[in-house]
Amino acid sequence: MTAHADLARYRKTLPTTTTTKATTATTATRIDRPRPDDGPLLWRLARDSRTLDLNSSYSYLLWCRDFAGTSAVARDASGRAVGFVSGYMRPKSPGTLLVWQIAVDESVRGQGIAGALLDGLSTRVAAEHGLRSLETTISPGNHASERLFASYAARHGATVTREVLFASEDFPDAGHAPEVLHRIEPLHF
Known about the structure:
- By secondary structure, this protein is of the alpha+beta class.
- It is built from 5 helices and 7 strands, in the order αβααβββαβαββ.
- Helix 2 (39-49) crosses helix 3 (57-66) and helix 4 (113-129) packs across helix 5 (143-155).
């Protein structure tokens, strides 16, 4: 199957509602930079999400050390990580933050934490690096992520464009879904 066919099939699976009302994250939740000792819990959050590609536990430790400036953790009142977003600035596209993964503990889903993570991280990255656009990839059928990023775009007055970044046949493991790039721009902070 070609990337063009993957994108056409993906567009047919987009949820009918493209804007959602963002809920407010609980006031006891704070958005913070990750620390290396957060790595094991972030790995568990990714594993327990049942939707994310799980990376090695070592990669989450490194990510929390080397990419803390472009990632964020949501902490509950006790300081425990209950959600995270990992990202990096694209080397060949200054001003573009690529969001790699975002996960929220099942016990606190529906409280607006994922949206608060994206907004908090974007504000910090904009202040420290400048931010014009945000990119992420979403596999077809992940409607929760599609709604999350459509809502983010709406809150920031930006548009979302989509294209297949990696088609199914680009992956070495059989049966991998295509990865559809969602580009959200222009962002103004």
